[in-house]
Write a structure and sequence with these properties.
The protein contains 3 helices and 3 strands; from the N terminus they run H-H-H-E-E-E. It has 149 residues and is of the alpha+beta class. It starts with 34 loop residues before the first helix and ends in an 8-residue tail after the last strand.
């Protein structure tokens, strides 16, 4: 085993097809070259199978928890003061517990209460996100952030 932990970067885009990026056969063929992402992908591990749900919230929940979304309270898009079950263990929490610095930037859509269901509450050390409402962003750093490690 290597002395240094590998870096882990996950891109999760809504409404993005398998063949959009050059590294998966798209890029120039789809009318939009993706040379920087292709280079990035060539230097790491590419995952080849992730079956998404019909909506963004259940897909995000499944990716972060490794569980069926319905078991985490996210079987559909969150509308109201709800979202990911607060006791849920996420990939971010597990990686943070293993010594990784974790961050999340972008659309969260796993809870509409930024005070109790933000990315920080689920293991991300640092986050800038949209809780799901258009044109409203939040940002926070965990009090136990590992930033700067």
């Amino acid at each position: 085993m290597a002395d240094k932990q590998p870096n882990i970067v996950v891109f999760f885009w809504d409404n993005f097809g398998w063949g959009e990026l050059g590294c998966y056969g798209g890029g120039v063929l789809r009318g939009a070259p993706t040379p920087r992402i292709d280079q990035f992908a060539s230097e790491g591990l590419k995952l080849l199978n992730f079956n998404v749900e019909a909506q963004c919230t259940p897909s995000r929940s499944s990716l972060l928890t490794g569980r069926h979304a319905i078991r985490s309270g996210t079987g559909a898009v969150s509308i109201g003061p709800d979202g990911l079950t607060q006791w849920e263990i996420t990939m971010a929490r597990a990686l943070s517990d293993a010594g990784y610095a974790t961050g999340m930037w972008g659309k969260w859509h796993l809870g509409s209460d930024p005070a109790h269901r933000s990315p920080i509450d689920f293991g991300f050390d640092e986050a800038v996100w949209s809780p799901g409402r258009p044109m409203k962003c939040s940002g926070r750093t965990s009090p136990t952030s590992r930033k700067g490690r």
